[in-house]
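Input record (one chain):
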Amino acid sequence: MAVIGIAGYLLLGVLAFWKAYPWMLPLVTGAFAFAVHLADIESMVLGVWCIYCVISLGVITLMTVLAIGQSHRRFDVAGAIGPIHPRSASTLSGAAFPAIPRRH
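The corresponding structure, as predicted from the sequence alone:
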């Protein structure tokens, strides 16, 4: 089980390095669900908590929240959702459409 977890963290690290947040989202969501399942087993069946599992649950929770935020942010910047850009086309030196500012 530990080897699978390590491989998953490495894969998520590579995807985060490449800023492939939409690809990360389903993987990190599945990992979060599995970590919650393991925490449930620890509390209900075993009655003891593994400190490494609790730390892993915290890390995967943080990664899930950040991946959701980054995926939504990239979706918004791509213009698929969100408000229309407030500047008019005439202020952009003859451009037909205002440019969408890139957020980093």
